[in-house]
Amino acid sequence: MHDPQGYDLTYNDVFFVPNYSEVGSRFEVDIAAPDIVGATIPLIVANMNAVAGKRMAETVARRGGLAVLPQDIPFDILASMIEYVKSRHLIYETALTLGPEDTVADALNIIHKRSHNTVVILDDKQQPVGIFKETDASGYDRFTPLSQVMSSELVTVPAGLPPEKVFDILTKKLVESAPVIDKGRCVGIITRKGALRSSIYQPLVDNKNRLKVAVAIGINGDVKAKAAAVLKMGADVIVVDTAHGHQKKMLEAIKAVRSVDKKIPVVAGNVVTAAATRDLIEAGADIIKVGVGPGAMCTTRMMTGVGRPQFSAVLECAAAAKEMGKHIWADGGIKYPRDVALALAAGASSGFIGTWFAGTHESAGDTLRDNRGRLYKENFGMASKRAVKNRNRGAAAFELARRELFEEGTSSSRLYINTERPGVEDLIDQITAGLRSSMSYAGARSIEEFQDKAVIGIQSASGYQEGQAVETNWD
After folding, report:
1. Coil, strand or helix at 385
2. Are residues 92 and 111 in contact, defined by beta-carbon separation less than 8 angstroms?
3. Domains of the chain: which residue ranges?
4. How far is 455 from 14, CA to CA, in rounded Å?
């Protein structure tokens, strides 16, 4: 056995030491990711089946991040999802729409798919005639037509109006959201927060000014054919994904993708060592996904003992990638805004987030209620029995049963929707606010400068606990 030298650190083991700073405001800080993808915020949504779908991809790209659609999605559905994301408006949210003849039940079935919690009622000419909120259903049975319960006192805003004017209109009218109208037709919906956000964030777009989206593919089967197919669908980034990325099949898979397209950004992982990082880059990867076992749904470390504390893994792999002019994404272990800042300071170009985003309206899972009426989403690991079953739908029953014996993930986890931050954009606001502050404490105006200037200290468990807020009184 190789003798371990020293010890490795998690995000909880470290902290920032404040520096002298000439940064006067959070808005002086540029948080664009410094890698080939071009994200204007350093946030990537993990390719987890219960997290990354078309709603998530659209919403995150509108704010400058990127979602990676999972490899388990059948190609015909995947093509329609990519087409959908590419067709979305860069400013206005996609409205949830129904007709006057649809029922309260129809509205309640879709209203929690987006955090604005509004259904716009359209006539046959796609013109809005009413608004439905969940509270409008009170006192009516589920089969009542929406025409009988909707509010017909509409506030609308014309397309192209500056965000400040939109915000003023909604504030004066005492409404949180309004349909956006272009030539009499509803082209989306905008909220007060959405108007504010459109003045702060810059969408992540392709060369045709459409929202970007990434797609994950596995290392098994005909990788070259899969890569060619997703590129034809319009994917902007390919993520070659497997639990153990430092293996021969991964190197062959990267080369296969590169043989299809020399310029497409290729992400590969997962790994936790400098040697693995170098090997994957030499095979043709632009960005390396770093992390084995730190994810909230992952049981790899408890099952196998394999993995590495995430801060040290990011630090080592990022240094190796930088030597070769490439970058890494920090995948796993991110639970708080501070973790994103620490990952970036350690050298990552973006934080890769899954479970934290699972409990939002935009995640791909269905919205459910517990016996107390609280909304939640179910989440599961991508090496769990549930994911293995989804990934091997066409396998014979005996072979599927054999594969299900080997699981390294949680098959069911309940993520409650936070009433204060129910949407993924609320979490993006929280993360980017924390990151901007971290960078200003370091005296850095860009992520590259942050990585040069950040000073990291090591703390005890009690040091970490000391930094946590107290919600009630001390015991």
Report:
1. helix
2. no
3. 11-90+203-362+419-464, 96-198
4. 10
Q: Could you count the other beta carbons within 10 Å of the beta carbon of residue 473? A: 5
Q: Do 96-198 and 11-90+203-362+419-464 fall under one CATH topology?
A: no
Q: How far is CA 368 from the centre of its chain?
A: 20
Are 289 and 268 contacting, i.e. CB atoms less than 8 angstroms apart? yes
- How far is Cα 194 from Cα 71, in angstroms, rounded to an integer? 31
User: Is 330 in a helix, a strand, or coil?
Assistant: strand
Q: Which residues make beta-bridge pairs with 360?
A: none
CA separation (Å) from 205 to 33, 66, 238, 294, 329? 14, 10, 16, 31, 20
Instruction: Check: CB of residue 104 under 8 Å from CB of residue 149.
Output: yes
Query: Can you tell me which residue has the tokens 């269905």?
Result: 366
Question: In angstroms, how far is the first alpha carbon of the chain from the final one?
Answer: 46
User: Per-residue confidence of the chain (475 residues) as pLDDT tens digits?
Assistant: 555 667 899 999 999 999 999 998 888 999 999 999 999 999 999 999 999 999 999 999 999 999 999 998 999 999 999 999 999 999 999 999 999 999 999 999 999 999 999 999 999 999 999 999 999 999 999 999 999 999 988 999 999 999 999 999 999 999 999 999 999 899 999 999 999 999 999 999 999 999 999 999 999 999 999 999 999 999 999 999 999 999 999 999 999 999 999 999 999 999 999 999 999 999 999 999 999 988 877 888 888 888 999 999 999 999 999 999 999 999 999 999 999 999 999 999 999 999 999 999 999 988 888 889 888 888 765 555 555 556 566 667 767 666 666 566 555 678 888 888 999 999 999 999 999 999 999 999 999 999 999 999 999 999 999 998 887 777 6
CB atoms within 10 A of CB 156: 15
Tell whether pTM > 0.70: yes
Alpha carbon distance 49, 114 (integer Å): 18
CATH topology for the 11-90+203-362+419-464 domain: TIM Barrel (3.20.20)
Question: Which residues are tagged catalytic?
Answer: 298
Distance separating alpha carbons of residues 361 and 422, to the nearest angstrom: 6
Q: What's 96-198's CATH class?
A: alpha beta
Report whether 70 contacts 216 (CB < 8 A): yes
